[in-house]
Write a structure and sequence with these properties.
Elements lengths: L2 H28 L32 E2 L25 E4 L8 E5 L10 E6 L7 E4 L6 E5 L6 E7 L8 E4 L7 E2 L1 E2 L5 E4 L3 E3 L5 E6 L5 E3 L3 E2 L6 E3 L7 E3 L3 E9 L7 E10 L3 E8 L4
Parallel strand pairs: 12-20
Antiparallel strand pairs: 1-10, 2-3, 3-6, 4-5, 4-7, 7-8, 8-9, 11-13, 13-18, 14-17, 14-19, 15-19, 16-18, 19-20
Length: about 280
């Protein structure tokens, strides 16, 4: 593809994803009921249950990441865990001062236990994550480079636990709302939100949608030493209904970097981006 066309395609994909997230956030805020559905899971999971590696059935065409930030539980201990925070106790505001960073603030009780590491990634940038430590009352405050419409990932880390990450979009006003994953009901990624590279060697992508799904070449949010997505060169990949593909990942953490985000992205039938935190044990 010519450089100009590739740049336009990338920009259009980004705009489409942000528009989907914005419209989804508005729908969530208004609690509007879902009407109709162009993409149906195969098979349709029972209401209120979660498919392996996917979200619980929502009765709609897509789904949000949920307050636990995940698209469901799968992959054993690599995905299971308590939600990092409740977004009702979190604000993400961009001051009017030029050059200011986004202020991510947790009210008392937002991040428990005290002394946990609060880590925030801007999924739309290549900047390193921002880190803070939760206070005795569970509050926290940190700053991250970003702008309105950017998607953030917040995760709580303790000495013995990696809480399920929470993904949300920086709002124009009010509290952030969970990120929207348009194909959450039928495009299932296992593990769905975070992967222990010392225990799991690949991401499993399963298509339970009624239509074929086009998967773009998996990519790393930020190039870091030791992290390789060994997916070959046959991309984009077409995944027919009721079939799956595996994306091998190898990560040898360093003393400086022990985790980073890998994206699995669908281009059709709807634009959908899934961030997976890949981590390991530093030497």
């Amino acid at each position: 593809m010519a450089p100009g066309l590739q740049a336009n395609a990338t920009m259009n994909s980004t705009l489409a994803r942000r528009l989907a997230s914005t419209l989804g956030s508005i729908a969530l805020a208004l609690s509007a009921p879902s009407v109709g559905c162009g993409i149906s899971p195969i098979p349709e999971p029972p209401a209120g249950t979660a498919a392996a590696g996917g979200a619980g059935a929502t009765g709609g065409c897509g789904g949000s990441a949920g307050l636990d930030g995940s698209a469901g539980t799968a992959g054993g201990a690599t995905d299971a865990g308590s939600p990092s925070v409740d977004l009702q106790f979190v604000s993400a505001n961009l001051p009017n001062d030029p050059g200011s960073k986004v202020q991510v603030v947790g009210a008392p009780g937002a991040a428990v236990p005290a002394g946990a590491i609060v880590r925030v990634y801007n999924l739309d940038s290549t900047e390193p994550p921002a880190n803070a430590t939760s206070n005795a009352d569970g509050s926290f405050k940190l700053e991250v480079l970003g702008s309105y419409g950017d998607e953030l990932r917040l995760q709580l880390l303790t000495d013995t636990d990696r809480r399920t990450p929470v993904d949300f979009v920086i709002p124009d006003f009010g509290h952030p709302t969970p990120s929207v994953r348009p194909l959450a009901d039928c495009l299932l990624i296992t593990p769905s939100t975070q992967m222990d590279a010392s225990r799991v060697s690949a991401l499993h992508v399963e298509n339970r949608c009624a239509e074929q799904v086009q998967i773009q070449a998996p990519r790393v949010r930020r190039d870091v030493p030791g992290l390789q997505v060994q997916a070959g060169s046959d991309w984009p990949a077409i995944v027919p209904p009721s079939t799956s593909i595996d994306v091998p990942i190898v990560f040898h953490p360093s003393t400086d970097v022990d985790e980073e985000i890998v994206f699995i992205e669908a281009a059709t039938p709807q634009v959908d981006r899934r961030p997976i935190t890949v981590y390991g044990v530093s030497p």
